[in-house]
Design brief:
heterodimer, A: 112 residues, mainly beta, seven-stranded mixed sheet, four-stranded antiparallel sheet, 54% strand, B: 110 residues, six-stranded mixed sheet, 11 strands, globular
């Protein structure tokens, strides 16, 4: 099976812009979670989607949002970018029967 | 607040020795525990999961779980330079939200 894929892999934006990141889970996985990883804060949970519904949300401002489509693909959006949003954004999918998560390669976002 | 704690390291271990990585967690009801390895610039890769008290072995890796002490560890036997990475402990808290420790940076010295 193909693994989790994320696009784009690298992104450079300026403050105030918005960005959309995409994630395709492993075939058959209906749960998709998003994480932000920075050197100072480590891996922090953003949100989880299952069958197009947000099931969990981390402690991030409303500028961070996401959605999931009927084919389980997911997107996350960050509006009004700030310098502190520079991070590696990771998507992970898991099968319904377990809580084991499998990560994609990540999108490296740089905000200038 | 649900927490997962790890020593950040760096932990330096000679090649061929045993590397021991430790993790404590705050939620007594957690039932599953994961170790991920992350190479610099890459995404986390699952290396071990453990659900029951005791030891679980997979090749050179052994995970140890003690639920009473809320403690999980990872042992790497016959450490190789390719084991140099950051090791992340992860525990799902409530509704399967996976919480990660800050990771332990491991360096294997040839």
């Amino acid at each position: 099976k193909a693994g989790v894929t994320q696009t784009p892999r690298y992104l450079i934006k300026t403050r105030g812009q918005q960005v959309t990141l995409s994630c395709s889970p492993i075939s058959g996985h209906r749960s998709v979670s998003w994480y932000q990883q920075t050197p100072g804060q480590g891996l922090q949970f953003l949100f989880e989607y299952f069958s197009e519904t947000q099931r969990n949300k981390g402690n991030f401002p409303g500028r961070f949002s996401g959605r999931q489509f009927s084919n389980s693909r997911s997107e996350m959006n960050v509006s009004t970018l700030e310098l502190g949003d520079s991070a590696l954004y990771l998507c992970a999918s898991r099968p319904t029967s377990t809580d084991t998560q499998y990560f994609g390669p990540g999108t490296r976002l740089t905000v200038l | 607040q649900k927490e997962v704690e790890q020593n950040s390291g760096p932990l330096s271990v000679p090649e061929g020795a045993i590397a021991s990585l430790n993790c404590t967690y705050s939620d007594r009801v957690s039932q599953s525990f994961f170790w991920y390895r992350q190479y610099s610039g890459k995404s986390p890769e699952l290396i071990m999961s453990i659900y029951s008290n005791g030891d679980k072995e997979d090749g050179r890796f052994t995970a140890q779980l003690n639920k009473a002490s809320q403690y999980v560890s990872l042992l790497i036997r016959d450490s190789q330079p390719s084991d140099s990475a950051t090791y992340l402990c992860a525990v799902p808290f409530g509704n399967e939200k996976l919480t990660f420790g800050t990771g332990t940076r491991l360096t294997i010295i040839p």
